[in-house]
Amino acid sequence: MLRTLLASLFVGWIALAQPADPEKILQQAISLHQLGDMDGAIREYRAYLEKRPQSLEARSNLGAALARAGRFDEAIEEYQLALQKSPHNPQVLLNLALAYYKTARFAEAAPRLEAVLASAPNRQADWLLADCEIRLGEYKKAVARLAPYERDYASEPGFNYLYGTALIRDQQAARGATVIDRILRQGDSAEARLLLGTTKMFANDYAGAVPDLKQAVALNPNLPEVHAYYAQALLRTGDQAGAAVEFRKELELNPGDFASNLQLGALARQDQDFAASRKYLDRALKSRPGDPGARYQLATIDLATGELDEAKRSLEALVAEYPQFAEAHVSLATAYYRLKRKEDGDRERAIVRKLTDEAQATQPGVHVK
């Protein structure tokens, strides 16, 4: 009886302690948010939304508090609910894009940033979208997006690094060198070393890239993509073990990094650790949905593990989309032969021979009679 009475009194005290007026709950949530108490703010925003579920302000603020607490998946959910009330709200769209961006879901961040820019010019959204385009391999788009800013922001290190990255990855070495020179005038830096190293990589000078990228890692081991590019240079120069270490370091900083997930997936597949390989490759596809390289690696796992029908379907889709993808034709021929479809296998082998002949004919010094 005593315990029941005490429990009743406690519940009654809690009820009295809580603001009865929903607007007071909202004001308390905002105050906690401003004071940096994210757990308290999240709790109060949710209490308010139980009473006022249609509130766009509280829903958006809850998303912001969740994002600030690093709970990005929950934040994305709240922003999406907010957009159901106001589909073209630029601030909510920007916040949703930032949540996707911070979780390396660049393909999902990009259309939200485009929607923000459709409503009004926004430099932050424009530069973020350019970075998304770089991460998605759409270098020409990023160059075109950033070029108009060069006149006003040529002295801005952040802009120079972003623009230089886009130019170098689009293999515009001369224009990229001009931007690198602007960065170097302000002293040696991890950003400059990374750009110098990637310039050499795109010129196939992987051995020359290694010292620059190693120095970039030493100067700033937290610079996005620095470990990934150093790893790729090491891999191309025969240091597979060192490359794996650097790819893993990149993923510690950025679990969604495309190149690191793709390469670690390929390395795990070579070691026949198919479960680990699938995990890495699935992550790669989250960063770049539909990427042919990641899809091919997954198809070869199906082939290696006897999932022949699944491998065949995946490879047929790949060669339909990318008819010049010779390795996919080779693997598809293997799948057909294992499925006792010799005629189809022979057809794929003929396609591979044709693609090989065409590639050899375009090589310098090769003369086809």
Which class of the domain at 290-360 in CATH terms? Mainly Alpha
Corresponding CATH architecture of the domain at 290-360: Alpha Horseshoe
**Rg measurement, Å:** 26 Å
The main β sheet shows up as: none
Give the total of beta strands. 0
Shape, principal axes of CA atoms: globular
As for the CATH topology of the domain at 290-360, it is Serine Threonine Protein Phosphatase 5, Tetratricopeptide repeat
**Derived structural class:** mainly alpha
Beta-strand content bin: under 5%
H and E string: HHHHHHHHHHHHHHHHHHHHHH
Q: What percentage of residues falls in helices of 4 or more residues?
A: over 70%
CATH superfamily of the domain at 290-360: Tetratricopeptide repeat domain
Low-confidence stretches: 1-17
CA distance, first residue to last residue: 102 Å
